[in-house]
Amino acid sequence: MAGKLMRAVQYSSYGGGPTGLKHVEVPVPTPKKDEVLLKLEAASINPVDWKTQKGMLRPLFPRKFPFIPCTDIAGEVVEVGSGVKNFKAGDKVVAMLSHFSGGGLAEFAVAKETLTVPRPLEVSAAEGAGLPVAGLTAHMALTQSAGVKLDDSGPRKNILITAASGGVGQYAVQLAKLGNTHVTATCGARNMDFVKSLGADEIVDYKTPEGSALKSPSGQKYDAVIHCTTGIPWSTFEPNLSSNGKVIDLTPGPGTVVSSVWKKLTFSKQQLVPLLLIPKGENLDYLVKLVEGGKLKTVIDSKHPLSKAEDAWAKSIDGHATGKIIVEP
Ligand SMILES: NC(=O)c1ccc[n+]([C@@H]2O[C@H](COP(=O)([O-])OP(=O)(O)OC[C@H]3O[C@@H](n4cnc5c(N)ncnc54)[C@H](OP(=O)(O)O)[C@@H]3O)[C@@H](O)[C@H]2O)c1
């Protein structure tokens, strides 16, 4: 593909939101030894993508401008690097790109073999592209931080999932219910039936007094909170936690980190745990197989063509998506 041009969407400085995105033609990237070149069929947007554009993760991300954002993709392998063993041209896959390099809002992208997994026919490109950041984060929070065993073998745990209607929350509810759990979920009134359909045992509307107090209607104390939204103080969580309860904060600011260290130093049994996704190919493969087997679904909020990627971007910034926002080249 050397020398061939592709359509892509990129930004060249911090800030600007949807209007900072520019449609360009750039060379199709060339895969390195351990990479595959994919013709993309779908990409999904995560809040981290526009937070990066805002400069919230500077100077780490992005490393340089111009930058093609988005990491979560599904497509077809068209070329492989010389060291790639498990894929060949024509294979359908799901992959996660590095936050350093991005590249998902384009017709083609190069992905590391280690974060590329096969996509069976039963899993559409959009369903697959929804999984990487949101699905892996839900998986890591539940299995690693909250200690839920997804084969239903562990002790019963009471779990609260905040913002259960969002990209991470919808996967977290479904994955939690594969384990031995009682799930309470918060969402807005319009999404209560939807979150119930994902398997949540109890739902509270976050705009009611009971919902904003995170109270379980049946009086459950939570062993773990998968906290997918922001702006809820520790004093609201504390009375709702079991004696060893943990809040797993997916959007940790400096305050979370300080509180988390303080609770460790003071031997507090209730813990605040900041979570940063460490993506693993084997876990992505596990999630794709759950979708294949009908045990997990990607709920899609909306699909947008690459030519209107700024609409998808604006929708994510708005913060009211139900499920995943997909961009299709
Ligand atoms: N640490 C990590 O590695 C990591 C990884 C992935 C995501 N994250 C972070 O996790 C957060 C969630 O990500 P996401 O992709 O799930 O976001 P998202 O899809 O944009 O979440 C949108 C949903 O949140 C709901 N919501 C907003 N405020 C709420 C509240 N106070 N209570 C209950 N529901 C509320 C909205 O419902 P309404 O429309 O009804 O308001 C909407 O359905 C983001 O801050 C993201 O940056 C962190």
UniProtKB/TrEMBL annotation:
Entry's Gene Ontology molecular function annotations: oxidoreductase activity
InterPro entries found in the cross-reference section: ADH-like_N, Chloroplast_QOR, ER, GroES-like_sf, NAD(P)-bd_dom_sf
Positions of the Enoyl reductase (ER) domain: 16-327
Superkingdom: Eukaryota
Protein name: Quinone-oxidoreductase
Organism: Actinidia chinensis var. chinensis
